[in-house]
Design brief:
It is a single chain. By secondary structure, this protein is an alpha+beta fold. It has 2 domains: 8-105, Sandwich (Immunoglobulin-like), CATH 2.60.40.10; 107-141. It has 1 helix and 8 strands; from the N terminus they run E-E-E-E-E-E-E-E-H. Strand 2 (26-36) and strand 3 form a beta hairpin.
Length: 141
């Protein structure tokens, strides 16, 4: 009789920068886990996982004893990208996959975003100061 395959998942999948500049290397990381029905919890799984970008396999790596994995990725082509990590499964474990999105931007797009954020912070803190000063002035009336 065959044992039922165990459920698996990719947990904590993330990129250290979801808007890298073209050519900038980022790290994509997460954990491969399986569900242990005896202990009723998710456990680390050592196996091979593959990195796909826009449906094309670009890398593969073995997970560490704690189930963690890391990929390095860079692209010179700007635009949104679907980043997916897949575990193919085997005779004991079911396959699984997880995806995130990143957007590769130009240096000018990055500078524009940084300027906008700086301006928004300046306006925010200015408003806080104005409200604080007004509350002091109005409380003395």
């Amino acid at each position: 009789m065959f044992a039922e395959k165990k459920k698996t998942r990719i947990a904590g999948l993330h990129a250290d920068n979801s808007k890298p500049v073209a050519g900038e290397e980022i790290t994509i990381a997460g954990y491969l886990q399986f569900y242990d029905n005896k202990t009723k919890r998710w456990e680390p799984l050592r196996a091979w996982v593959k990195l796909y970008v826009d449906g094309i396999e670009v890398d593969r790596t073995a997970t560490k004893p704690n189930g963690s994995f890391k990929f390095r990725y860079s692209s010179n082509v700007t635009g949104k990208k679907k980043v997916e990590v897949r575990f193919a499964g085997d005779n004991r474990f079911k396959p699984c996959r997880k995806e995130i999105s990143i957007e590769v931007v130009t240096q000018e797009q990055r500078k524009r975003t940084e300027r906008f954020v700086k301006l928004a912070l300046i306006i925010f803190f200015t408003l806080i100061v104005v409200v604080f000063v007004l509350s002091i002035v109005l409380s003395k009336w």
